[in-house]
Amino acid sequence: MDADKPDWPSPARGWLLVFLLALASVVSQFDRTVINLMVEPLKAEFQLNDTQFGALQGVAFGIFYILACIPIGRLADRYQRRLIIAVALALWSLFAIGSGLARSYWQLFLTRIGVAVGEASLSPAAFSMLSDQFPPEKLGRPVSGFLMSAPIGQGLAFIGGGSLLTALSTSDLLRHGLFAGFEPWQAAFILIAAPGLLLVPIFLLVREPARRGTGGVEQLPLPAVIAIVRERRRALIPMFAGFALVSLVSYAFAIWTPALLVRTYGLAPVEIGWGYGPLLIVFGMSGVYAAGWLSDHLSARGYRDAPLRVAIGGFVIAGVTGSIAPLMPTSTGALALLAPTIFFGNFPYPCAAAAIQLITPNRARAQVSALYITVTTLVGLALGPIIIGAVTDYLFSDPQDIRYSLTLVVSLATPLMAGLLLLALRAYRELRVG
After folding, report:
1. For residue 1, what pLDDT is reported?
2. At what angle are helices 365-380 and 117-131 packed, to 10 degrees?
3. pTM, rounded to two decimals
4. What is the H or E stretch that residue 32 is in?
5. 151, 199, 261, 380: which has the fewest C-beta neighbours closer than 10 Å?
6. What is the C-alpha separation between 233 and 239, in angstroms, rounded?
7. What is the rounded distance in angstroms from the CA atom of residue 253 to the CA atom of residue 385?
8. Among candidate residues 244, 297, 250, the one with its CA nearest the CA of residue 424
9. Rounded-to-5 percentages of helix, strand, coil across the chain
10. Rounded to whole angstroms, how far apart are CA atoms 187 and 42?
11. CA distance linking residue 79 with residue 208, whole number of Å
């Protein structure tokens, strides 16, 4: 218990904050995921190969993270985090709308850089707010509650986006009125992004949690934050590298599974939406929650490295099922194996977020979280989509062989991730507080 803030806020107020942060994350995931259903129309519209499409989701997001994620983290450690989230909501929604107005590949590329403001701003601020709202031994489940929003947003994007694209292809909206002359993918971008602007005033009214354990320091200077990372490098470096490989596999599946289902099994967007979307929601949510619950349970039993143990176990199982799923002879078999892949593949996310908060001082939490997100995104989102596209384009030389690209990448990344986190266990136990 903190000496300067002995009383924690009520659980009801804390879980209301979890809900609002999760709702913002759903909007963010929706805006960034729906493009994955547009692989074929965008390739046809702008004459792209798989590598160039991968760059839209990879390099475009990576550029923003390189330039802005850590500075945003510093802002979140000094200023009101609710205001940072409100501004981010407005910006990424407007850029997502701009994606539907793009008339060239490079215009679309630039708008996707703007959409990256979502996770780059939301996650560091959200993790920091939650660590001030819940005591350390109860942090796992709130973080899981927030992170459950990612599979919800992704699943809804596939369900709603697939249905919307199908409806727009025969709708009078594209022949008359506001969307006359638009392609279905353009109208879909605009219709999906606009509601995010409605959340902006809500976050302007959210109560900012009081910061805990700051010792009266308003903001740590950057050299002090660097010193904190250096002191914890034996834990943080292998943790960041291991979780970066989790991100690589996760983004590879999120971005290329629709293409796999189209090319290998001949499914239409609406079939992908209703086949794959519910799996993301049900198994993604339950996987994130199960990981948070298991981490808290093991922590209560005295396992100070519980978050890392849970992350390793879950991802190894996901790696096995995920490497087999693309090779299945039918779409039913592939989706059946994707279910446990999604469930166990989501274990590392709440574990990583909680683990970092528990070994980092308050005034550096958002910045260290931003560094974590920057590293994992550069490896995962900036490289994952392009690696799959490049392996398909230049190693197998046939778009139909994307199934082999996915299997190859997953089977190589999984043991590397497990080995890296095993290296971090001892140092993490020594640093763990609370």
Report:
1. 42
2. 140
3. 0.72
4. helix 11-33
5. 199
6. 9
7. 9
8. 244
9. 80, 0, 20
10. 13
11. 10
Q: In angstroms, how far apart are the furthest CA atoms of the chain?
A: 65
Which 3 state secondary structure label does DSSP give 53? helix
379 burial via Cβ count (<10 Å: 0-12, 13-18, 19+): buried
Residue 57, token pair as written in the block: 């989701």
Q: Using the 8-state DSSP alphabet, how is residue 326 labeled?
A: G
Burial of 43 (0-12, 13-18, 19+ CB in 10 A): middle
Per the structure block, which two tokens stand in for 44?
């046809």
Q: Are 211 and 361 in contact (CB under 8 A)?
A: no
What distances in angstroms separate CA 53 from CA 42, 49, 60, 152, 425, one per listed residue? 8, 6, 10, 24, 38
Cα–chain center distance at 169: 29
Give tens-digit pLDDT for 73-97: 778 777 888 898 998 889 889 988 9
- pLDDT single digits (tens) 317-344: 999 999 999 999 999 999 999 999 999 9
User: Residues 236-249: pLDDT tens digits?
Assistant: 999 999 999 998 99
Q: In angstroms, what is the C-alpha Rg of the chain? A: 21
One-letter amino acid at 17 equals: L
Cα–Cα distance measured from residue 114 to residue 220, given in angstroms and rounded to the nearest whole number? 28
Contacts of 111 (CB under 8 A, 6+ apart): 95, 96, 98, 99, 102
Residue 36, amino acid: N
The size of the chain, in residues, is 434
